[in-house]
Amino acid sequence: MKPRHAAALALVGWYLLAPSRCVLDATGGGVLTDWVRLGGFETAMQCDQARKTVQMTIDTAHEKERRSGHEMKLLLGEEAECTDSKLDSSVSNLAVGHPLGRCK
Prior knowledge:
This protein has helices spanning 3-11, 44-68, and strands at residues 14-24, 30-41, 76-79, 81-84.
């Protein structure tokens, strides 16, 4: 790892995480798996604000799908949550995702 990347990771205190994939369980319902990082933030407040922004964008996308009669699908960013990097250092190793990608 390059020193500048290590320094940038050291500044991150909170990660916005979201499930990137859903699979069907025995009842046919979706089970969320494989979490990804949507962003890194210095404070819990910054992370929560980003989570709210992602959720508003997803809500808008679902409303458009509902009005057009399309099947609503899980979007990357739904069920997003903020995690303290000090409590779980493994989150820095998760893949980086982009909000609104479709859950496969």
